[in-house]
Amino acid sequence: xxxxxxxxxxxxxxxxxxxxxxxxxxxxxxxxxxxxxxxxxxxxxxxxxxxxxxxxxxxxxxxxxxxxxxxxxxxxxxxxxxxxxxxxxxxxxxxxxxxxxxxxxxxxxxxxxxxxxxxxxxxxxxxxxxxxxxxxxxxxxxxxxxxxxxxxxxxxxxxxxxxxxxxxxxxxxxxxxxxxxxxxxxxx
Length: 188
Known about the structure:
By secondary structure, this protein is an alpha/beta fold. Helix content is about 45%, strand content about 25%.
């Protein structure tokens, strides 16, 4: 840790009736599940810095960061003692899960996720929302990925969680009501 890093924060959340110490939180789930919004609000309530992976992965024009460079970027981003990081990037779950103490899985119904993703694309069309130089657009490939997330991507997430579960607190939130209750508890 460098001299410029803020002191480590220790946040205690009540999760399912028990106190939990939280310093390094990975937020994952389908597109449209609300990962960035959740992470931003959790960061506001806890004072823990938030890292939005999309802002670091996408280069202007929606150009993806090459795989090895992406691993190095995440290693640098996650070197701090406390953080909340949101994003999927299944090929690098290990980078985040090896350092995290908590993983929050936003597992909202896929129709809700699809509608949210579609509305975001329409509401912010042409504006850089996910990353600088990457204007929001209606992307049918992305919408298909959102719809197929439970079939194609969730098994990969489960496999990664299984590899790290012994050292992680995994919290799965399956409804907007659960998300709101969790955030309320974080603000107490």
